[in-house]
Design goal:
Blueprint: H1 3-13, E1 21-32, E2 36-42, E3 66-77, E4 83-84, E5 92-98, E6 101-108, E7 148-158, E8 164-174, E9 179-190
Length: 197
């Protein structure tokens, strides 16, 4: 079943209307000053977060919205807003829970992170790494640390009105005094009030 058909199938089974606007979606959530901990839960609390820290007010989509997750993105920033290694590069796993069902279980993220700004899936340039025999100074257009980006190979659908959360488990991950961000990107359907565009 294709991703578009799966999204339509889930919406139909849940009674969601099919006249929503198809769109690219990115859902993100921030945890401020997490410190050193063995676990983080994203998309659980929204109190006190501003528009730049999350784009949701609850851990579920509206009754006429749904989404297919294609990528999980994790980043850590220090108090000056500079990107750092997520969790201090200790062994960590990510899990996604939809309703009361775990749909991604303990997926290791260390294959998608590192200092060289080149992820395992080879989607990004090899930034901040000298690639020839000349000594090239680091440039402000490069970043030394990259966020963790995990491309999913299976369709994970967030249906309307079903709670969801993303959990990070680690052995004393060092997340610092700044902020950690989780973003789920993909495509889906949003409510469309008009009949024509």
């Amino acid at each position: 079943m294709s991703q578009i058909n799966k999204l339509a199938y889930v919406d139909q089974k849940l009674g969601a209307p099919s006249d929503g606007q198809q769109t690219t979606r990115i859902l993100f959530n921030t945890i401020e000053a997490p410190g050193t901990t063995s676990g983080l839960i994203f998309f659980k609390t929204f109190q006190g977060l501003t528009n730049g820290q999350t784009n949701l007010t609850q851990n579920r989509l509206d009754s006429m919205e749904s989404m297919v997750i294609k990528t999980i993105w994790l980043a850590q920033y220090n108090t000056a807003g500079i990107l750092e290694n997520f969790g201090g590069k200790v062994q960590q796993t990510v899990s996604i829970i939809l309703g009361n069902q775990q749909v991604v279980k303990s997926l290791p993220i260390q294959f998608n992170q590192g200092d060289t700004a080149q992820t395992f899936d080879r989607l990004h340039e090899n930034a901040a790494v000298i690639t020839d025999t000349f000594v090239v100074p680091f440039d402000s257009s490069y970043q030394f640390h990259m966020p963790v980006e995990i491309r999913l190979l299976t369709d994970i659908v967030i249906p309307p009105q079903v709670s969801f959360e993303v959990r990070i488990d680690s052995n004393a991950g060092v997340y610092g005094a700044g902020a950690v961000v989780c973003a789920l990107s993909g495509y889906g359907k949003i409510f469309s009030a008009g009949n024509t565009f």
